[in-house]
Amino acid sequence: MKILVTGATGNIGRMVVDHLLAGGADDVRALTINPAKAQLPDSVEVARGYLGRPETLPAAFAGVERLYLAPVLGTVTDVVRLAREAGVRHIVDLSGDETTDWQPIAQAVEASGLAWTHLYAGEFVENTTVWADQVRTTGEVREPYPEAANAPVAMDDIARVAAAVLLGNGPLGDNHEGRVHTVTGPETMTRAERARRLGQVLGREVVFKQVSLDEATAVLEPAMGEYAGWYLEGFAWMVESPQVATTTVMDVTGAPATTFEQWAAANADAFR
């Protein structure tokens, strides 16, 4: 069974490749813009192409049975059409529900008529590193919504789920067609609680200081640029409607999701 991983040199796609190999896959093709710089394992077939340029995809799709579809919005309709024409049977997409900008990916995949599995992921726990500069220099986190709560997920856990679905491994076996897997971290916590727990891991207090949206945006702009305000505004609705943690990572892979403390301990140097 040939599996194609698109976005294979991006953060999650690269991890999907690694987890496929670890899970026993022996026919993995990886799509990348620059094969010479991909540095993928020798056992992986490397194909040149980019989801944003559908004309580069037919050769990469040839002979593929299952496809991991990275989240590229603008060309998704053409991409899934080409996948269908090439004989792809099952698409596993990283997208989002109707409250997100990524829902059109899921809609296009369903409209293709192919078997599908949607992976809906919320905030990546890796986004916590946008706090790194202010934690290092002030020992504070300055944001507007201390009670906003979600269950941030590690990108590696998303990749583990994707690989298990593509391979039909794990407790659910090959029972993934037509299913939505909402992938979260193991626990819902507020922004203030996340800062407190980060301090516990670092061995020093990290104070959450509530400030205006404008002030918080200015603090994050050096790390996030024009997306800082958009990122912070997204937490406003989580004050009254916190994200509920799921057991998807355990259910699909048979191994627990990464806790915030585990992630923070592995990345503590970024905050010191």
Structural class by sheet pairing and helices: alpha/beta
Q: Judging by the overall fold, what is the CATH architecture of the largest domain?
A: 3-Layer(aba) Sandwich
Beta strand %: 15-25%
Give the SSE string.
EHEHEHEHEHEHEEHEEHEHHHH
Number of helices: 12
As for the number of domains, it is: 2
* Principal-axes shape call: elongated
The share of residues in helices is: 25-40%
Number of strands: 11
Oligomer: single chain
Q: Uncertain segments of ≥5 residues (pLDDT<50)? A: none
Compute the average pLDDT: 96
* CATH homologous superfamily caption of the largest domain: NAD(P)-binding Rossmann-like Domain
Biggest sheet architecture: 7 strands, parallel
What's the SSE blueprint?
Layout: E1 3-5, H1 11-22, E2 28-32, H2 35-38, E3 45-48, H3 58-61, E4 66-69, H4 76-86, E5 90-95, H5 103-111, E6 115-121, H6 132-138, E7 140-143, E8 149-150, H7 155-167, E9 179-183, E10 189-190, H8 191-202, E11 207-210, H9 213-224, H10 228-233, H11 248-253, H12 260-266
Parallel strand pairs: 1-2, 1-4, 2-3, 4-5, 5-6, 6-9, 7-11
Antiparallel strand pairs: 8-10
Helix pairs in contact: 1-7, 8-12
